[in-house]
Amino acid sequence: MDIPDCIVRPRGPWAVAPQSRGRLVPEPPSPTRTDFQRDRDRIIHSTAFRRLKHKTQVFVTHEGDHYRTRLTHSIEVAQIARSIARSLALDEDLAEALALAHDLGHTPFGHTGEDALDEAMRPYGGFDHNAQSLRIVTRLEQRYAAFDGLNLAWETLEGLVKHNGPMVAPDGTPLGAYVSRGIPAAILEYQALQDLELASYASAEAQAAAVADDIAYNAHDIDDGLRAGLFQLDDLAVVPLVAELLAEIGARHPGLDRARTAHELMRRIITRLVEDVIGLGRRAFESGRYRSADDVRRAGHALVGFSPAMAGADRAIKDFLYPNMYRAPRVMKIRIAAAEVVVNLFQRLFHDIAALPPEWQQGLAGADENKRARRVADYIAGMTDTFALSEHRRLFDSAPDLR
User: Fold this and answer.
1) What element of type H or E holds 382?
2) What percent of the chain is helix, strand and coil (3-state, nearest 5)?
3) Could you tell me if 399 and 392 are in contact, meaning their C-beta atoms sit under 8 angstroms apart?
4) How far is 350 from 331, CA to CA, in rounded Å?
5) How many domains does the chain have?
6) What is the pLDDT of residues 357-382, one digit of tens each?
7) What is the pTM of this model?
8) C-alpha span between 11 and 187 (Å, rounded)
């Protein structure tokens, strides 16, 4: 079927075609949406996406209403990803879908919750939020009559799994973070059903979503850290890019109050990083070496990302945030208590499946430990921060005050 002109934007030959390679369960095409517009809509309407509203990044919900959650972060990433994709003549809808889906597998309490659940699951294959995202969109969401999951297009699943690069070498040897742990079972199980070509890079659209995630993190973590009083604008002068931008703001708007200065800083960080990514991508695509999406996958390195100079600036921002925000004493106090909630929930539910809701108990009678542990991990990973605390209170008659 031809895709209507009204829903197709100009794209380069290096972009993913608007019509997918296919879905695991074949479906007739939509007369009004491309495959990736359809995927984006399914992600937005999923239960897992709505839960992101009450899953935090660094702070928990008690800290205030203005800090980022996984939901607001995902929306910010989607906006940045679309901007990059539009400038590079990519498929904006695929980039947006991947940006909106990239955090679906995260646990409550941010990376603290993931680390705690991974440790609890270590004897049973561990926990990986990327693999959990795949489980959600291929199995755990149960909304449709004809299939489990969301039955997303091949390109969307590929980008969701490989947005950070190849997972295995051509000979199947795990790469990167998976060298010591192996490829998560959820990814291998799905790979047996539909080959996601784990040895290649993902599309340029997936690369745009991945770098958009980095850009959003840098800007909003500085914003949230300033808002929380973990550091001040003057402290950021040790970060070269930030110092340069603060000097620009001071020269253009002398005497500007600190709140507006902070907002100007966020805007300029995002703009500078996005412009760098677009410049690098344009140089790559205008070289004429990449005449198809598969050429991008076979390039041997990411084509959409930071230049070497900006990669250093990105690293400097993260080097500042690590001790001053992620490991700040106030944050660490919350992290320790939050990790204890996750561990307590896992141990109690693993050893007492009757404490699970009835629908989560189905099929566990007589099941081995691996299946029981994975079911408990699925249940906990789907919790919001507030629900995890509520469940802890239900099962232990208490919950820590995460302030």
Assistant:
1) none
2) 60, 0, 35
3) yes
4) 28
5) 1
6) 999 999 998 899 999 999 999 999 99
7) 0.94
8) 30
